[in-house]
Amino acid sequence: MANAARAIIIENGNILLMHRSKLGSQYFTLVGGKVNDNETIEQGLVREVTEETGLEITTARLVFYEHHPAPYNEQYIYLCEVAPHNGAEIQKTSEEALMNKLGFNTHTLYWIPVKAFSHLSFRTPQLHAAIVKGLKKGFANDAVRI
């Protein structure tokens, strides 16, 4: 069973999202991805965020977890803070950069205003709804299963 770790990163009223165009489907998702067998969930989160964005996570708090169809059977979503930076960009050595070069499965990072988040086409509706609720009312201190 594979696990995935994803990050909710909010700065200056914006949330960092990945826009994907995959096999004709267009949607937004959180940054992050598959946790390797030799990693903890948190280690995978840090690695994935750095690989995809160049950002360094300084704090991470688990806020949601969900059962997700294969290949990511369990998905762990963290509310994260990152070190000061000059922007986020897909790293040239990442899997996403390679797929962008091939052109059939593209990835683009966007800082989206939090106020616009509820109107986006998001990959998983239940996670989208949970994040919308968390943005409005605050994220719970204990992780919530969605």
User: Strand count, sense and closure of the main sheet?
Assistant: 8 strands, mixed
Order of helices and strands: EEEEHEEHEHE
Report the uncertain regions.
none
Briefly note the CATH topology name: Nucleoside Triphosphate Pyrophosphohydrolase
Mean pLDDT: 91
Distance between the termini: 19 Å
The count of helical stretches stands at 3
Rg is 14 Å
Q: Helix proportion of residues, in percent?
A: 10-25%
Count of DSSP strands:
8
Q: Approximately how much beta-strand content do the residues carry?
A: 35-45%
Coarse morphology: globular
How are the SSEs placed, and which strands pair?
Blueprint: E1 3-11, E2 14-22, E3 25-29, E4 31-34, H1 41-53, E5 57-67, E6 74-82, H2 95-102, E7 105-113, H3 125-137, E8 144-145
Word description of this protein:
The protein has 146 residues and is α+β, with helices and mostly antiparallel strands. The protein has one domain: Nucleoside Triphosphate Pyrophosphohydrolase, CATH 3.90.79. The protein has 3 helices and 8 strands, in the order E-E-E-E-H-E-E-H-E-H-E. Strands 1, 2, 3, 4, 5, 6, 7 and 8 form an 8-stranded mixed β-sheet that branches. The longest helix has 13 residues, at 41-53. The mean pLDDT is 91.
Please sum up the structure shown.
This protein has 146 residues and is α+β, with helices and mostly antiparallel strands.
Features:
146 residues, alpha+beta, 8 strands
